[in-house]
Design brief:
- By secondary structure, this protein is α+β, with helices and mostly antiparallel strands.
- The protein has helices spanning about 5-25, 25-30, 35-60, 65-75, 80-90, 90-95, 95-120, 180-210, and strands at about 125-130, 140-150, 155-165, 170-175, 180.
- A 5-stranded antiparallel beta sheet has the order 1-2-3-4-5.
- Strand 2 and strand 3 form a beta hairpin.
- Helix 5 packs across helix 7 (about 95-120).
- The chain is globular.
């Protein structure tokens, strides 16, 4: 991988690492309150990447298994509504509850579809996490790190994580090479929102997801 990664590659790698991050939350949830966010990320990253590699063929062969995996391991541990709200921006405030539900679900479907193709990019990556530059009492922090590859330069990666009301860390944004996932999708969605509003975005997402 090089620093000229295209948009598809960025989103693919980001989602791959998001699943790596989220999939192991269940195994370490009991220790979340006692761990700084960077230690939390470091502890689970390598083992989860190994799990993904070992199941890659299975997941690629059966999209339903991939969908089930994401529902079980990712969605409970990612603040997906916040992510969707930040991507949509100001129009979210005026959206009805039904519109918000539809946007969130269609955005989720879009990410799952993108992730299906991203699995092929998983190789021999490992993750090195930096020391956390935050106060112990902070509940919304950025964890910086880098992906180490055998046949390529390191790739800078950052996580925006926050503690939810129940004290568990949750992810709501990721950055690869300085480009944040939310910013990337926001740039795609804003022209549609400006021209066609929330209903226009819902229709566009459904078209992308093959539901229209």
């Amino acid at each position: 991988m090089n620093t000229s990664m295209n948009r598809r590659g960025f989103i693919g790698l980001t989602l791959t690492l998001m699943l790596s991050l989220s999939a192991s939350f269940a195994t370490v949830a009991h220790a979340q309150e006692a761990q700084p966010a960077n230690v939390f990320v470091q502890d689970f990253s390598q083992s989860v990447l190994t799990e993904i590699k070992s199941r890659k063929k299975e997941l690629l062969a059966d999209p339903a298994k991939l969908d089930a995996l994401i529902d079980k391991m990712v969605m409970p541990n990612v603040n997906f509504q916040k992510m969707t709200q930040l991507v949509v921006g100001r129009p979210w405030r005026a959206a009805t509850p039904e519109q918000r539900t539809q946007i969130t679900e269609q955005f989720r479907v879009l990410l799952v579809k993108t992730y299906s193709s991203a699995l092929a990019q998983v190789g021999d990556q490992t993750l090195e996490v930096d020391r956390l530059r935050a106060k112990p009492e902070d509940t919304d922090v950025i964890v910086t790190s880098r992906v180490i590859q055998k046949n390529g330069p390191p790739v800078d990666l950052a996580y925006r994580v926050e503690k939810s009301a129940d004290g568990k860390w949750k992810v709501y944004d990721l950055s690869v090479l300085g480009l944040w996932l939310i910013d990337s999708y926001k740039a795609q969605f804003q022209p549609v929102l400006a021209q066609s509003g929330v209903d226009g975005l819902i229709k566009t997402l459904k078209q992308k997801n093959g539901q229209v």
